[in-house]
Amino acid sequence: MSTRPNSPAAKDIAYNLHPYTNARRHEESGPLIVDHGKGVHVYDDQGKEYIEGMGGLWCVALGFGEERLVKAATEQMQRLPYYHSFAQKSHEPSIELSERLLDMAPGELGKVFYANSGSEANDTVVKLVWYYNNALGRPNKKKIISRIKGYHGVTVASASLTGLPANHRDFDLPIDGIMHTACPHHYHNAFPGESEEEFASRMAGQLEEMILREGPDTVAAFIGEPVMGAGGVIVPPKTYWDKIQRVCRKYDVLVIADEVICGFGRTGEMFGSDVFDIKPDLLVVSKQITSAYMPLSAVLMTDQIYQAVADNTAKISTFGHGYTASAHPVATAVALENLKILEERKIVDHVKKVAPRLQDGLRRFADHPLVGEVRGIGLMAAVELVADKEQRSLFDPVGRVGFHLYDVAQKNGLILRNVGDSLAFCPPLIISEDEIDTLLDRFGQALDETYSWSTRTGVAAE
Ligand SMILES: Cc1ncc(COP(=O)(O)O)c(C=O)c1O
Question: Which of 286, 288, 297, 419, when mutated, tests ligand 1's pocket best, judged by the most ligand atoms within 8 Å of its CB?
């Protein structure tokens, strides 16, 4: 029996099954109830302040309490709170947003399809890839290659693309036709003495081997995040994407950039594709497109894909795909305003300016006895804790020390996320240098407390 049967916390335990949560642990310790937010801060129902070091779930670009987004939503709600985009219906916010997105996007992208989440967008991508190849009369060219530790969502197809065991285990996933190639994480996966360049070549070589083994006529697409996010913020070697794209082009394999985290300034460029010179055939965005004030995602595609798809819709008289809330007017109005603010306030330049404060600040922890690697780009980063710095060996079990640090940081007023024993950072893009300093102080304190705990309990060697 809960000791607070009528409290919101007790009700939460009683009524909610939480995503990405150990339900039994939740029954014991209950939720952190977040009440409101302002800028980079959120406040719980007891009034305690936290720096949101993850921008929620890698998404609140403009921070909390941005009045212009509230106004854009309110005005659109009053004018046209809902309309759909089936059967040749449209509305102004989605039309304007598409024009803006296509102007901003890397490469040669010509059409936009809207969904509501990153997962739905990636399911759309899988279906588009299949539909496209059927339209071209290539019914065998359907397999999609993703990567170990890639994260693309949790719906049936997108969870299959995701390359993390927890998203497959006991869900009977992945589905057939989705394969995972190696993760471009030099720190863990390079051979001793292998340079980043050699490692990148080996990664591309492995992709090529996989395509040849499966048969190039059966492989349709390769999907990757320019910088991996939820797999632990893994920045690939500089030339990795160039080499991967060459292999894809050689075998007529589509390149899909999942920019759900990287898109809209996170890396210090507008898109992660701009950092690595990726020319995607399909590009997926969500999260920061609305600063997550409204759910929205979009798939941008080349004209070549659109033309084949369009011909097929004419042949079978419809495109049998779409969501009730595809291109939702309120979500697209908020996105439009969000992108206007990003430009007006030169947020990408701001990220470029303040990112070194975060990246250099975190790298100062590299000598700490618990820290194996500090990595990141722009305003996304991770600090990985290891059992043995020399051997780069992991803690057993993985995640226990990382979770402890996450928990202590939260008690110290800093919300992070642990991916195993990597602590991820992805603060709102508007964060100031002073706020970054406070974030670093709180993290350093939590790291030291975690080290004391780990030596006291024998988890880590002294
Ligand atoms: C790169 C990437 N793709 C897709 C998704 C799935 O998005 P959603 O949680 O909105 O379904 C995420 C979520 O974190 C992501 O990081």
Answer: 286
